[in-house]
Each structure stands twice: as structure tokens, then as C-alpha cells.
Amino acid sequence: MALDNDLLDRHSNNPQSPSILRFYQWTPAAISLGFHQQKYPDRWHEIAQQHQLDIVRRPSGGRAVLHKGDLTYTVITNVELDGKKRSHREIYEYICEFLITGFAQLGIPITYGQSGRGYIHNPSCFSTATNADLIIADGRKLVGSAQVYRRNSVLQHGSIAITPDHHILTELFQTKVPIVGCEELLQNQHRNLSAELIRSLTAAARQHFQSEFL
User: Fold this and answer.
1) Closest among 171, 197, 196 to 73, alpha carbons compared
2) pTM for this predicted structure
3) Which residue in 1, 48, 106, 125 is the catalytic one?
4) Residue 82: how many other CB atoms lie within 10 Å
5) Which residues pair with 72 in a beta bridge?
6) CA distances to 25, 52, 69, 79, 171 from 28, in Å
7) Residue 175 in 3-state DSSP?
8) In whole angstroms, what is the distance from residue 201 CA to residue 208 CA?
9) Which secondary structure element, helix H or strand E, spans residue 13, and what is its range?
């Protein structure tokens, strides 16, 4: 995520530079904290040590995310859409369209969550599906995303669940986290699921944004 932040800096200093799309996974696994998330339970340090997790801070907002058995996506682009400035919500929905399209092509329909701002009292990003999250029909969250703006550029990145570790999630947040992974939804239809996700989402992004990416 330090690279995400650096790439956003570069893009914001040159608004004519191409948009950026990247995917990555975590070694070692980690807990990422939102930029403004100042407090988290002391016991997380013990849990992190026990399960060999890093604790890092994102440049974007939101709550804590466990990056284990997930795929992280990043989009960095200009805040102007079709030459017009848009609201943060409009930009978020515009960027998310490639995710909705890419998952639909894999046979996974997703839509926006409905919860209100009660999420700010919950340390877990995946415990509450707000309208900034993408969920399946039964309400379980598949993708959690966050943004940060710098000059005329926006960074949106998020966690796509593949094989969520429900044991560690329950340990961290002391409640059942309503998250679903792509592996469960696709029932092992793809030998290399991460590669198939990247392929489908990259194709959807190229079509949606009508451009190639760095």
C-alpha cells in the first residue's frame, strides 16, 4: 500500500498521466487500518503475532481489513469524468462498475450494500455492508473499498474476498463477520481463481474505462 500511495502522488503531480490498475496479494498476511482509525484493541498485537500478521495503515479511509485469502485491487485515475467534476459518490460508483461487470461475467451478481453510518463504531470493514461496499444477494460482503483524493486524482482500492479466514476474523472482531469468498461462490470452477479474477476484472476495466492502464 506504500506503493499505492507513491503511485497516487505521481499521478496527482501529472494529471495527464495514464490511469493505473493493479492487483496484489499479501505476504505475510496483514491487518490494514484506515488512515483515520486511531484506536484498535490491544489484543490485536497478540493475535497478529500468533498468526504472523503485519499491522499496517492504509492511505485511504475506512475500518480495519484482514488481508488473508483475498485479492487487493487498486485504481488510480483523474477525478473528472467525461470532462466534468463529479461527487465522491459518483466517482465511486463509476469506478465500481468494472467490478460489477467483471463479477457478472464470472456468474456472480453483486450490488451495493444498504447500511447507514453505524459502521464508524465498528472496527471491522467487513462487519457492516454500507453503500460503499459490494455484496451478494444474501447480504454478505464480497468487496470492501475505500478512497483517498489528492489534487485532481483519486485512489480507490479494496479487498476482494477469495478464501476468507473466518477463524481469525472472529478472533479479531469477536463476532461472526458476514463475508463470502469467491471460492465458495464459484465452487472451484477455476484452477487458479486469483488469475481468473484478474483476467476478468482487467478486461472489464479496459472496456468500462475505454483505455489501457499502466
Assistant:
1) 197
2) 0.89
3) 125
4) 6
5) 24, 159
6) 9, 7, 11, 33, 18
7) coil
8) 10
9) helix 2-13
Q: 143 near 161, Cβ under 8 Å?
A: yes
Total residues found in the chain within this entry: 214
**Grid cell at residue 32:** 490494514
The residue type at 75: V
Asked about 96 being catalytic, the answer comes back as no
DSSP for 92-134, written as a single string: HHHHHHHHHHHHHHTT---EE--B-GGGGG-SBGGGS-BTTEE
User: Closest Cα to residue 132, out of 40, 191, 61?
Assistant: 61
Beta strands in 27-182 (DSSP E): 30-33, 54-57, 65-67, 70-78, 80-81, 84-85, 111-112, 133-135, 141-150, 153-161
Residue whose C-alpha cell is 461462490? 185
d(CA 32, CA 58): 6
Q: In the structure grid, which three cell numbers stand for residue 34, read together?
A: 484506515
Asked whether the beta carbons of 19 and 205 are under 8 A apart, the reply is no
DSSP code of residue 162? S
Encode the chain (214 residues) as per-residue pLDDT tens digits. 899 999 999 999 987 888 999 999 999 999 999 988 888 899 999 999 999 999 999 999 888 999 999 999 999 998 876 667 788 899 999 999 999 999 999 999 999 987 555 444 455 444 455 667 899 999 999 999 999 999 989 999 999 999 999 999 999 999 888 999 999 999 866 678 999 999 999 999 999 988 777 6
